[in-house]
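ok trying this again, last paste got cut off
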Amino acid sequence: MYERQVYHGARFHAGEVGHIPLDPDGPPCGCGKRGCAEVFLSYRRWQEGASEELLKEMAERLAHLCAITLSTLDPGLVVLGGPLAEATGEKLLEEVRKRLPRYALKVHEPDQVVLSPFGRDAALLGAGALAASRFVDSLAFEEVM
């Protein structure tokens, strides 16, 4: 949020952290780049090989991504949601928080990373809230005109 408003960016891609490359030599991503966070942190990948080892590898990558997000945008919280967060829950969160100090600035604390209470519906509910907000804003604009 910027001045209590959602910050969209110049091309409406602000916060699209899934396409931050974590390994430029990594596997190809659907966006055309290689090694995007999305490739390493997908629910599909978790389903195909769920294990303690994979959980720790994902936590390492996610801690790196959270540190980039914290350093770049300086949010109060980084909220983990969606199917992967729902499936791995507190285990993933605990592992990410353990690893975060390796990547994050000293001003950022591990407890700035939290789980969304909305699970796999987090993105859908956020999109709905954004649509409702735009609708209400458009009504307010029409009243002024």
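PB: full thing came through this time. DSSP finds five helices and two strands in the chain.
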